[in-house]
Amino acid sequence: MKINRPLSPHLTIYKPQLTSTFSIFHRISGAFLATMVLFSIFSFKMGDLSLTFYHFYQYFFFLTFYLNWVIISLVNFTLLALCYHMSNGVRHLLWDSGLFLELSKVYTSGIIMLFRAAFLAPLNIIRQHWSNGQIPY
After folding, report:
1. CB 126 within 8 A of CB 81
2. Binding site residues for heme, as ranges?
3. pLDDT reported for residue 47
4. Transmembrane segments in this chain: where (predicted)?
5. Separation of alpha carbons 1 and 117, rounded Å
6. How many Cβ atoms are within 10 Å of 113's Cβ, its own excluded?
7. H-only helix segments in 2-136
8. What φ, ψ does residue 130 adopt, rounded to 5°?
9. Tens digits of per-residue pLDDT, 37-48?
10. Cα–Cα distance measured from residue 29 to residue 37, given in angstroms and rounded to the nearest whole number
11. Which residues have a Cβ under 8 Å from the Cβ of 81 and sit 6 or more positions away?
């Protein structure tokens, strides 16, 4: 006897919840931050690997002079991901200590975390731009 139904729940059945959305974005922001760290290490090591620094400095000059907006946007987006990931990490640490585990407090802490990240990111971007007006390399 064959029953015509799915064996496991699918994404089309469930409507996205706030907690699952925050969890997915927490993982995405962590993967993005790890990628940015690896990209930074690779960029700094690329100068060490070249026998002559001419091509490295030519590439670096092109990036900083002609594509300055790309670097600034990437740094700002990385700061946004970092603020979100840290705020959600603090929320998870509070859960691990046994706080805010009731359903209503889970949603409230999620909204507070989102506003905290939305407040910290522009604050860090403004602080970054006001510190000498340069991107810290």
Report:
1. no
2. 85
3. 61
4. 24-44, 56-87
5. 53
6. 21
7. 18-49, 54-66, 68-96, 103-130
8. -85, -10
9. 988 887 777 666
10. 12
11. 29, 32, 33, 36
**What CA–CA distance (Å, rounded) separates 12 from 32?**
26
pLDDT tens digits, one per residue of 45-73: 766 666 566 777 777 777 777 878 888 88
Domain extents in the chain: 67-131
Sequence letter at residue 22: F
33 in Cβ contact with 82 (< 8 Å): yes
Angle at 57 between CA 55 and CA 58, to 5 degrees: 60
Architecture of domain 67-131: Up-down Bundle (1.20)
pLDDT in tens, 87-123: 999 999 999 999 999 999 999 999 999 999 999 999 9
Task: Check if the beta carbon of residue 22 is closer than 8 Å to that of residue 88.
Answer: yes
Q: Quick one: tokens of 111?
A: 């909204």
Binding site listing: 85
Give the separation between CA 33 and CA 41, rounded to whole angstroms.
Answer: 12
